[in-house]
């Protein structure tokens, strides 16, 4: 996969893309990553990329000529590639969108800074718009890094044999349950016996129950779209009953 990012701050990507899994993906030739400086496409004397808004008001607006030129130069004649604007006005990023985007051979992410983009950039050069959550960052760079990380770990081979596809939180609509490693006892806390039983079926069943419990506790909204067996529905009813008893005590 190839990912091109257009940004006014290409250096921001250097460390993130040179460490850990992002570096492994690049080293294994599963990812080609490029951060392009939008300012290189400002062919005015001052390398100016923004200007004041028509109609007044504060802040600076990214200029359509510079940004559209930068996108067109990076895109070339490739009309299949999604050109994604990072902005708090986009569709909210999630696991399904990460999987969807990982199916493309190439992505172009456009990061803004300052007050916003001239609307004609959207009209002329953008095919998708993504937000990473309902809050405003000072620029799209951190949001782009979040998207790149979540997308790249979906590429087969990036995470090794098992991959991200199975046990990740959200992969099956549930949050992941707890994990344990050595030592078997730490500050008086042990580990669940089932994990050392050697019984894989029982371990899987325990993990699924714990995932359901954590989802019910932290993100009950997610349970509305998960396929649950009757036994699992009974288990949730039991959790709710236990909680209401404890709340009464
Ligand atoms: N740029 C500024 N805020 C953002 C957000 N929440 N998501 C994506 N890009 C952004």
Quickly count the domains.
2
Low-pLDDT runs of 5+ residues are: none
**H and E string:** EHHEEEHEHEEHEHHH
Bound molecules: adenine
How far apart, in Å, are the first and last alpha carbons?
56 Å
Question: What is the correct CATH architecture of the largest domain?
Answer: 3-Layer(aba) Sandwich
Query: What is the strand arrangement across the widest sheet?
Result: 2-1-6-5-8
- Bin the strand percentage: 15-25%
Q: Please estimate the helix content.
A: 25-40%
What can you see in these coordinates?
The chain is α/β, with parallel strands linked by helices. The protein folds into two domains: 2-152, 3-Layer(aba) Sandwich (Alpha/beta knot); 193-248, tRNA(m1g37)methyltransferase, domain 2 (Trp Operon Repressor, Chain A, Orthogonal Bundle). Helix content is 36%, strand content 15%. It is built from eight helices and eight strands, in the order βααβββαβαββαβααα. The chain has helices spanning 12-16, 20-27, 64-75, 95-102, 119-125, 141-152, 200-218, 230-248; strands at 2-7, 32-37, 50-51, 61-62, 83-92, 106-111, 116-117, 128-131. The strands form two sheets. The chain has a five-stranded parallel beta sheet. Helix 4 (95-102) links the parallel strand 5 (83-92) and strand 6 (106-111). The chain is elongated. It starts with a strand and ends with a helix. 24% of the residues are buried. The chain binds adenine. Residues 86-88, 131-133, 135-137, 140, 143 line the site of adenine (ADE). Adenine is lined by residues 86-88, 131-133, 135-137, 140, 143.
């Amino acid at each position: 996969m190839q990912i091109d990012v257009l940004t006014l701050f290409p250096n921001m990507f250097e460390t993130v893309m040179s460490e850990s899994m992002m570096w492994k993906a690049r080293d294994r030739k599963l990812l080609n990553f490029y951060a392009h400086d939008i300012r290189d496409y400002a062919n005015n004397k001052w390398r100016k990329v923004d200007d004041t808004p028509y109609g007044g008001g504060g802040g600076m607006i990214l200029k359509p000529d510079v940004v559209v030129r930068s996108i067109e130069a990076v895109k070339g004649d490739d009309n299949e590639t999604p050109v994604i604007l990072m902005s708090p006005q986009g569709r909210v990023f999630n696991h399904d969108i990460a999987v969807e985007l990982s199916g493309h051979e190439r992505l172009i992410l456009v990061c803004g800074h300052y007050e916003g983009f001239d609307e004609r950039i959207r009209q002329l050069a953008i095919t998708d718009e993504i937000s990473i959550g309902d809050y405003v960052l000072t620029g799209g760079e951190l949001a782009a890094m979040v998207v790149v990380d979540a997308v790249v770990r979906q590429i087969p081979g990036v995470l090794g044999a098992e991959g991200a596809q199975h046990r990740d939180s959200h992969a099956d609509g549930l949050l992941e349950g707890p994990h344990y490693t050595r030592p078997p006892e730490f500050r008086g806390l042990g580990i669940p016996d089932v994990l050392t039983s050697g019984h894989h079926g029982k371990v899987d069943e325990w993990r699924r129950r714990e995932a359901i419990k954590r989802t019910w506790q932290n993100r009950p909204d997610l349970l509305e779209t998960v396929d649950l067996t009757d036994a699992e529905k009974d288990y949730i009813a039991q959790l709710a009953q236990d909680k209401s008893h404890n709340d009464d005590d």
